[in-house]
Amino acid sequence: MTFAALWSAPRGAVAAVLGAAALVAGCAGSTSRMMNAVTPYKIEVVQGNFISAEQVAALKPGMGRQQVREILGTPLVTSLFHADRWEYVFTLKRPGVEVQSRRLTVFFKDNVLDHTEGDEMPSEAEFVASLGSKVSQPKVPPLEATEAQLARFPAKPDTAPPLDAQPPATPPATHYPPLESPRR
User: Which residues form the Outer membrane protein assembly factor BamE domain (predicted)?
Assistant: First the structure.
């Protein structure tokens, strides 16, 4: 907008333009503080099969493919080029915690388990202990009210009569109307 156009514009439009300019100039310093206060949500990413030390100990050479699958689950990676090898990979990415990554390779020979190679697997108890959250629980304030605070909310009188003062309930009906009308 040129100066001549601004001068000939109605006073409301001039005030709006000047107000917007002042708002933008005033917010420049607080924008960085606001952006630092707002953080994006970061999700936990779990990929693959968790294999425990107990599962690896249950594997014995000579087991069939189905027996291995029942103990370890379906492998994450099977290759057409390496039909006698199954890859079990597990990755856990959590915000603020080091990435956990483990790998176990199972080798077959003549469709029976030959041997395994890979990382040392933790026990189930060790793995669960490693999942301890770094996020602290918020402190819950004590739920107490002073007499002055309670006085602001007067107690309502009990309008219901005591249970023993109520008349006895009417007996249930012994005759009911038919569900369907008789056909004629």
Answer: 48-115
| Non-local CB neighbours of 49 within 8 Å, separated by 6+ positions | 72, 73, 74, 75, 76, 88, 89, 90
Nearest residue to 69 via CA among 88, 54, 52: 88
Residue 169 lies in a domain: no
Query: Does the pLDDT value for residue 112 go beyond 60?
Result: yes
Percent of the chain as helix, strand, coil, to the nearest 5: 35, 20, 50
Phi, psi at 165, each rounded to 5°:
-90, -10
What are the Cα distances from residue 146, in Å, to 32, 140, 150, 153? 42, 18, 6, 12
Scan for tokens 């630092």, then name that residue.
36
| Segments forming the whole domain that contains residue 102 | 45-130
d(Cα 81, Cα 12) in Å, to the nearest integer?
Answer: 75
Q: What is the pTM of this model?
A: 0.50
Domain-located, residue 181 = no
